[in-house]
Fold:
Amino acid sequence: MNTKEKFVITISREVGSGGRTVGRKLAEKLGVRYCDKQLIKKLTEMFGLSTSEIESIKGRKKGWLEDFFSRITPEFGSEMFIPKGVEYAPEVTSNEIFNYESQVLQSLAEESSCVIAGRSGFFVLKDHPNKLDVFIHASKPTRVARIMRKQELSEKEAEEVISYVDKARENYIQKYASTSRYDLRNYDIVLNMDYLTEDEAVEVILKAIGQD
Structure:
């Protein structure tokens, strides 16, 4: 990847791994735009839905809604929160959300160099000529501990968050990218946060692109 030209770095991450923070810090170090909440905001404005409704539609798999309809499932470090009794908008499909989300990502990547967290960026921007794809993960104990600390949840609640979010994200990737988010061939760099701090992870990526 050539940082002297317009570039994009995609950060795919497991919930509770600290990947979102790594992406934000990396963007700050590089002096480029960081894209995450901004995209969700545009989606909510377009469809008139809450962020919980959008994220639920995206990860929806037949039969899932009944299972989670009355469960509180906050996702660490994200906008997703599914409250009890939430009413979903059946007229808005995951296809519409994916298509719009893809258009926004492509527009952002064309505008300027940026770091994009999540949003299936590694797949949506697969044809970008100057791109680096990063996957950030961690062991379940590390993820559980982080979610418990950040969201003030019990161990059981944190485990439920991980289970739900992992399944939702995997369903989404399999549906639209016809691959698994755990297939490491999709990425240029894979970082295990059991052995790295967020700042150390940033330094590894910077070194890989010649910016150390």
